[in-house]
From TrEMBL:
An annotated Gene Ontology molecular function: hydrolase activity
Keyword Hydrolase: yes
Hydrolase in keyword set: yes
Domain annotation DAGKc: ranges: 202-323
Organism this protein belongs to: Streptomyces virginiae (Streptomyces cinnamonensis)
Protein name: Phosphoesterase
PROSITE patterns noted in UniProt: DAGK
The entry's keywords: Cell membrane, Hydrolase, Membrane, Transmembrane, Transmembrane helix
Main location: membrane
Xref: Pfam families: DAGK_cat, PAP2
């Protein structure tokens, strides 16, 4: 165990004087309010209740602010519990000067610096305030009261509270920055998309567009653009169960195979186009359209113009083989094993409300207690991993759930690994703050041409 830190000097004396002054002063009504308020904030219960109330009774903007507050709290709490408390092992204050009516029935067993309650309180209030100043003004005095209650009940020095509150504010600012980064435009510069040859189809003759009827209204809007700009194009609508067979037939007779749907539908079309040796025209028709956005396509109209003029770009395609004798499969976006699908599912659900960065933090927070490591062999070596992500091309964005690509033609796999062993929580959270091409004791990110998994 690390030695406990002895605090001395002028600042420590002032810290103790302030602590003693609070203990000796009578605060009317505080004995009934502050200890209860501090207990209500244990484990973030007070802030979780506040977030739930805002989500139920607030506007869309208020709900977004509440979830950003929760994301800020999660970040501050994770930092305090994994780094702060165990880096600076300051003992708790002595209680001889604190009235018994104020003291907690159960004293905290962790070290004193910094104050986790203060960090959580100010993180939640800051996260909310940066998205909704009105709600922030309501929460600020509550957060300050929770922080003060920690000195009032004798479990923290004033400097513990100040440090915790400062960390909470920083957590709120970090979450806001992550949200802003996720909302930046994702259109890829044209010079990073290598050109490829394709026939020009001015009126659409020779283009066969397959539409997954389960894709919904986004696909319907894309079809309207195709019919208006490329009237001679053949359009085939099919059920999801018929998609693979329909794509194979369409690719066998088309000069250009078109696909209108989301990322999963586009991935199936890429396989059919590769096997038939024809170009693929992508008409965005899904919810998120990651592949289309990485190509710089913001709608079906842009694809219509490219088909009419014969403009095409070359992209790399990921290929996986299930084993000797197995038929290879292809992927345009990524391949994953372990916790990644659940992380992605949570992030996609929350991203429209709070932005991609905070959603990624919440996703890690949700799955870190439920997952088990996967045993496998990487390049012939046995490994235990919580998560393996192999992206088709280099993704930008930190951690194990990256978000966008600039160059789809480089022919590299972007590999992210979170190793097994120990508790998954600290490992996933640590990986969430690791750069895209860096290493840490729990996380590896690198680029390679191929990878053997057994």
């Amino acid at each position: 165990m690390a030695d406990q830190l002895t605090w001395s000097g002028t600042l420590a004396r002032w810290d103790r004087r302030l602590f003693d002054a609070v203990a000796q002063r009578h605060w009317p009504g505080a004995d009934r309010v502050l200890p209860r308020l501090g207990r209500a904030a244990n484990h973030g219960v007070l802030w979780g209740g506040a977030a739930a109330a805002i989500a139920v009774f607030g506007s869309n903007g208020a709900r977004k602010a509440a979830v950003r507050g929760v994301a800020s709290l999660a970040l501050a709490s994770a930092t305090i519990n994994t780094v702060g408390k165990w880096s600076v092992r300051r003992p708790r204050p002595l209680l001889e000067g604190v009235p018994l009516t104020r003291q907690l029935a159960t004293q905290p067993q962790t070290t004193s610096f910094p104050s986790g309650h203060s960090a959580s309180a100010f993180a939640f209030a800051t996260g909310v305030a940066l998205a909704s100043p009105g709600l922030g003004a309501v929460l600020a005095p509550v957060a300050a009261s929770v922080a003060f209650s920690r000195v009032y009940t004798g479990v923290h020095y004033p400097s513990d509270v100040l440090a915790g509150a400062s960390l909470g504010v920083v957590a709120g600012l970090v979450v806001r920055r992550l949200a802003r980064d996720a909302q930046e435009a994702r259109v890829v510069p044209g010079d990073e998309r290598p050109a490829a040859g394709a026939p020009a189809l001015p009126d659409g003759a020779g283009l066969t567009v397959v539409v997954n009827s389960a894709s919904g209204t986004a696909s319907a809007a894309g079809l309207d653009a195709v019919r208006a700009r490329l009237p001679e194009a053949e359009v085939i609508e099919c059920e999801a169960s018929e998609l693979t067979a329909t794509l194979a037939k369409a690719a066998s007779r088309a000069a250009v195979l078109g696909i209108c749907g989301g990322d999963g539908t586009i991935n199936a079309a890429a396989t059919a186009a590769l096997r038939a040796g024809v170009p693929l025209a992508v008409f965005p028709g899904g919810t998120l359209n990651h592949f289309a956005m990485d190509l710089g396509l913001t709608g079906a109209q842009a694809t219509c113009e490219a088909v009419a003029q014969g403009h095409a770009v070359r992209v790399g395609v990921g290929r996986f083989s299930p084993g000797p004798g197995g038929e290879p499969g292809y992927f345009l976006n990524n391949f994953s094993i372990g916790a990644y699908p659940e992380l992605l599912g949570h992030r996609l659900r929350w991203a429209p409300r709070i932005g991609g960065g905070p959603a990624a933090l919440l996703a890690a927070w949700r799955v870190l207690r439920a997952q088990r490591p996967v045993r496998l062999r990487l390049a012939g070596r046995p490994r235990s991993v919580w998560l393996l992500f192999a992206g088709n091309g280099t993704y930008h964005g930190t951690g194990p759930t990256p978000r966008r690509r600039d160059n789809l033609g480089e022919g590299l796999l972007d590999l992210r690994l979170v190793y097994g062993g120990g508790r998954p929580g600290p490992r996933l959270l640590a990986a969430a703050f690791t750069g895209p091409l860096s290493r840490s004791p729990v996380h590896v990110a690198t680029r390679l041409r191929s990878l053997r998994i057994g």
